Amino acid sequence: xxxxxxxxxxxxxxxxxxxxxxxxxxxxxxxxxxxxxxxxxxxxxxxxxxxxxxxxxxxxxxxxxxxxxxxxxxxxxxxxxxxxxxxxxxxxxxxxxxxxxxxxxxxxxxxxxxxxxxxxxxxx
Length: 124
Hints:
The protein has helices spanning about 10-15, 20-30, 40-45, 50-60, 85-105, 110-124; strands at about 35, 65-70, 75-80. It is elongated, with a radius of gyration of 16 Å. The longest helix has 25 residues, at about 85-105. The two termini are about 25 Å apart. It has a domain at about 10-95: Orthogonal Bundle (Arc Repressor Mutant, subunit A), CATH 1.10.10. It is α+β, with helices and mostly antiparallel strands. The chain is built from six helices and three strands. A three-stranded antiparallel β-sheet has the order 1-3-2. Helix 3 crosses helix 4 (about 50-60) and helix 5 crosses helix 6.
């Protein structure tokens, strides 16, 4: 993602300097494009609410997400992508596609398919 021309420079610099870690992937993987409650994000990522709140705060400081009041529950917060965050999300998708393509080229389509099936079973 650090070398994706469509990623804003500030975010590419974070990736280059290795400020983005595996934990940040939880935001990218589990945040719905329309927004997600903090408690649901934590649950999806199998993290404590406090750990997810810390992660969201860091991503908010970077300008990737913003917190909004949940109109259905005044105590809850909805986490939404900013425009910058949506650019980040798109770059993440392209990086995943590139990694999958490189992996398939390295091991062949049949092996990649078997591993994908195994990972799907493991994840469920």
